[in-house]
Each structure stands twice: as C-alpha cells, then as structure tokens.
Design a protein that fits this description.
This protein is 38% helix and 23% strand. The protein is of the alpha/beta class and 191 residues long. The radius of gyration is 16 Å and the shape is globular. The two termini are 15 Å apart. It binds 5-O-phosphono-beta-D-ribofuranosylamine.
Length: 191
Amino acid sequence: MEKKRITILASGTGSNAVRLINHFKGHPQIQVSAVISNKKDARVLTSAEELGIRSVYNENSFMETGEALLSLLREFRTDWIILAGYLRLIPAEVISEFNGRIINIHPSLLPLYGGKGMYGSKVHEAVIADKRSESGITIHFVNSKFDEGDRIAQFFCTLEGGEGVGHLEAKIRKLEHAYFPLVVEQVILQA
Ligand code: GRF
C-alpha cells in the first residue's frame, strides 16, 4: 500500500514541523513529503531542507488563491495537510477538496483564546492576565474559520501562581512536541 503523504504548512520556527518530520521518518504507512511556508526566511524552510524534505516558499497571495495552492498540493500528491504554526486562513477550495484531512495545533484550550490574532505569546499573555489555573493545547480539524473546526484532542497543564509567559510557553511547547505527532498518526491511521 502506498504511504499517506503529508504536506506541512508553517510560517515560523517550525519546531513542531521538525517533530512531525522526525516522527514519520521511516514510518511504514505515513510520510512527510513537503513543507510550504508563506514566509520567505522562515526557519522551518531551512530546518526541513536539512532533514531532506522538499521545502517551498510562496507569498500570501498565492497561498490564499485556492486553485494555486491546490495545484501545488496535487503536485506533491498530498493526502493530508498539517498546519504547524501557519497563520493564514486556508482557501475554501482547499478545505472542500481536503475536507476532514486538514489538522491544526493551537496553544490553548479552545474555544478559549482562539480566533484571529490569537497566536504565539499573545495567547499565553491572555491566559495569565485572566489568572487561569490551567491551559493546554488543542489539536483540531480545520474549517473556514480560525480555530473553529471540530476538536480532536486536548492536553492540559496547570499554571503556578505568578508564572511568566516564557515559562508557560515552554510547558505548552513540551505538550505540543509530545502529542502532536502521535495524534496526527492516530487520526491518519484511523481514517
Ligand atoms: C505552536 O505553538 C502552535 O501551537 C501554533 O504555532 C506555534 C508554532 O510553533 N499554531 P513552531 O513554529 O512549531 O515552533
């Protein structure tokens, strides 16, 4: 049986993308075949290249044009799209062709602290400002709205009193790295 092929979309550092690439290296049924970024100098592009993964940059206007992005995804023979720190909406044409086969990770317990403009340290700042006693990560399917697709899994961490943004961010990152590849693997194998 042919392996299921993942294309990762990412805009930044790509620590989750690297985890995914390494997790599926040598996997019998799943492979990461490409990384696409909308940021020309995103670290994810060089990190993925170093790991032998085809990596391409395309500007936002391309990424937001359904037919353009679809043709690139087809060229990569993509079965699944994984968003790992990708900050733009996915065009409707792509959502309809890949319905139920696009997964995102978000660094909060959605529906809390999601939506447009809620990313990176902004999420953690808001959690701390609200004096929450817990936070976590959400892995979910992607639809046409930011962070509103069906949830697949959530993982929690507790906050200590007086905890700083950097500390919370590190805890969240740990959860992401530990669980995202495993959940993606489970979803793909069960599909
Ligand atoms: C992660 O916190 C993820 O939850 C969010 O964007 C961040 C990406 O980090 N969607 P990295 O580029 O994978 O290090």
